[in-house]
Amino acid sequence: MAEDLNQSGGEAPEFKLFAHQGFNLISGIHSSEVVDKIQNFEIRDSDVFVITYPKSGTIWLQQILSLIEVKGDVTATSDEQNSERIPWMELMNPEKPFESAPSPRIRVSHLAYKFMPVGLKQKKGKVIYVARNPKDVLVSYYHFHKYANMLETPKDFDEFFEKFMEGNVFGSCWFEHVKAWYSHKDEMNFLYITYEEMIKDLRSVVERITSFLGKNLTSQQLNDVVEHSIFKNMKNNPQANYEQVPAILLNHQVGAFLRKGIVGDWKNCFTVAQNERFDKVYQQRMKDIPLSFIWDMSNLITP
Length: 303
Ligand code: A3P
What we know:
Elements: E1 16-20, E2 23-27, H1 32-38, E3 48-52, H2 58-69, H3 82-85, E4 106-109, E5 126-131, H4 134-147, H5 157-166, H6 174-183, E6 190-194, H7 195-200, H8 202-213, H9 219-227, H10 231-235, H11 272-286
Bound molecules: adenosine-3'-5'-diphosphate (A3P).
The site of adenosine-3'-5'-diphosphate has 21 residues, from helix 2, helix 4 and helix 10.
């Protein structure tokens, strides 16, 4: 998640969750007016929207798409942070209006399906939806709440678990987010990928993305995209790791955007009872949707 992060400076605004049409945003960085404008934007065929629920690997896609644009040449991305190169749709910078931005307009967004430009449903532009198993999303989001100054610090994991299950967080309910986007996929030019697939075989996901975008990269260029998108290299890359986001928004003393980058961290946090409860809710809420997730590292090891 975050912001036209580098625009922020000076005194901290008051950050608070507020619901807009039943979807939780954050005051001080989001506004209902901006969100409402998005639907009517004229969409170009070259527009690309990366849609994620928070903590599903948005920053990873910003890096991958930035690198695909420059055919894997990481030096060509050193002049600008990825959050500027591929900004947030819901955090529009009035000095760089979306309407007049040069093509290709590549944007990320955590917004619910109902807010997105109508043109997408007429098969204009492209949508890449990235989903991550929600138990790991919950854990990543818990840690992020301690690190991000624009989010309320949870008392403890148990309290945050309840908030997440109620959808009482920015982005609202994980189940609703993925279900709404996925169930409308046939209306759009839509690519669905998961965080876990990227962990398992990043190169094949990068190939799927490049072919979806109609880009031709050589094998070496694909290798370069992959190499500069692996966790350790992103963590050390100031354009890619959000370390330049001002302290008003992120407390770099207590955390890092690239935290662990693994599958199955939920096992270190969930109690048995929480896990059972989560599974029950998951089965109920996801029963109509043909999606499955990889829940731990052992599922990633191919025999
Ligand atoms: P963890 O907190 O579990 O480590 P988002 O950008 O949507 O907020 O997602 C952030 C999550 O994606 C963090 O998860 C972060 O570590 C993980 N992530 C980002 N880049 C990654 C990469 N190259 N490899 C693996 N995980 C990555």
